[in-house]
Automatic annotation (TrEMBL):
Keywords of this entry: Membrane, Transmembrane, Transmembrane helix
TM region(s), chain numbering: 15-32, 37-56, 62-82
Domain of life per record: Bacteria
Native species: Enterococcus saccharolyticus 30_1
Name assigned to this protein: Uncharacterized protein
Length: 83
């Protein structure tokens, strides 16, 4: 995901890095505070939508970015779904 920074327009790069920092903090909070699976999946789906909005403005292939994001977010949701 951090590799996507180079494909974004210059004006969006700092916002994407801030988004990634927030994503890691929110994921850690969800993982270590034992939140409900419904809340965790809902928050991760919102973050996935934000990721897609960033990738829409990317110079890289949108479909490739969506497939990678689906894979990563799917893996990230596993600990919450399997509880």
């Amino acid at each position: 995901m951090i590799g996507n920074v180079r494909y974004l327009p210059r004006k969006l790069r700092k916002w994407y890095i801030l988004y990634l920092i927030c994503l890691i903090l929110i994921y850690g909070w969800l993982l270590f505070t034992d939140q409900s699976a419904v809340l965790a999946v809902a928050i991760l789906l919102v973050l996935f939508a934000i990721e897609l909005a960033f990738m829409w403005h990317s110079e890289n292939s949108f479909l490739g970015s969506v497939l990678v994001a689906c894979l990563l977010y799917g893996i990230w949701m596993l600990p919450f779904v399997l509880r």
